[in-house]
Each structure stands twice: as structure tokens, then as C-alpha cells.
Design goal:
210 residues, alpha+beta, Glutaredoxin, Glutathione S-transferase Yfyf (Class Pi), Chain A, domain 2, 2 domains, four-stranded mixed β-sheet, 4 strands, 50% helix
Amino acid sequence: MLTIHHLRISQSERIVWLAEELGLDYDLKLYDRDPETRLAPPELKALHPMEIAPVITDGDLVLGESGAIVEYIVGKYAPDTALVPGPDHPDFADHLYWFHFANATFMTNGMMQIAVAAVGAEMPPPLAKRVTNAWQQIERRLGEADWFGGSALTTADIMMVFQLTTSRAFRDQGIDHLPNLRAYLQRIGAREAYRRAMARAEPGFTPKLD
């Protein structure tokens, strides 16, 4: 049985959403953050050397890292899914770009912002420009296409959305000035699989879709 270990208010919501989009049969285990450190509790840390979410278990397998988990689940349970355009699809390159942008660039930016704020400092201008550029690129992309991966929802969207929504609970990040993004998040919020995933993964938490 595939088990998703989800740390509340964390990027592991992506994996729950993916499982719902694919209609998979899975077990979900929820973990609350330590009230003092706001980090994972000991029982989740014990699962994987990184001591963070997401983590899945599947039989004897224990796997961490969002992108690896997404590729594993798709490869094993849904290799023909339309959520991953093939090499001959016109959206193939865009899907790959945004799938990897999500953690390689965008998540890194967000973590830098959190770290700088935690020590009471201001973002150095080069890093602040990197953050601004990323948000501008996102807004521009969503003016060109309805989805990050192109003509339809892909796993690129599943990777991107956490940082655009729930992650903003950790910092003051308004999106009133980003109309394309706001329209996109309404499309996300209209998806039944997303609503089911958030209800299961984050009971009592209202998704930050505006």
C-alpha cells in the first residue's frame, strides 16, 4: 500500500493532490509540526535521513524529495497519465521547465526569504531581484497559457502550486498585483481533486487561493 506521510502546512500536500488527481488508493498519515520549533515531529523525522516532508512508503521503499516522489508515483502507478506530456507533445519542454523551476529556483527563493526574515535582516539586492524576476516570470507565463505546463494541468502545476498558496502562510506575500496568477489559482481551486486533497491533508485550513 502506498502511504503518504504529510507534515501539516508543508509541500507534501503536493503528493496528496497528485494521488487524488490520479485516483489512487493510498493511505494518508498526518503529522503536526512541533509547537516550539515548527519543524517535523520525531516520528516523521525517523522515517528518512533528511527529517523533512514529503516522504512516502510503498512496501519496503521509503522515498523523500517531492520531484522524485512525483516521478516515482507516475512511473509506477500511472505511466500513461496525461499529467506528464511525452517528448512528442508540444508542451513537453514547457512542462519540464516549470516542473524543475518549482524547487530548483522558486522554492529556493522562498526559503531564502524565510531565512533572511528569521534573522531580522533584509534581502540583499541581487537576491531580491531574483525573487522579483521569478514572480514576474510566473505572471507572464500565466498570461500566455492557462497552466504552467501548457494546454492542460500537468505535474508541473502540482509542483508549483504549494509555493504560490500554502507557503505564503509563512511570509507576507500578497498577489493582488498579479491578475493572471489570481485567475490561475481560481482554476486550481475549482478542481475537485485539489479540493479533496486539501480537505484530507489540511482539515480546518482554508487554501490560500487569493
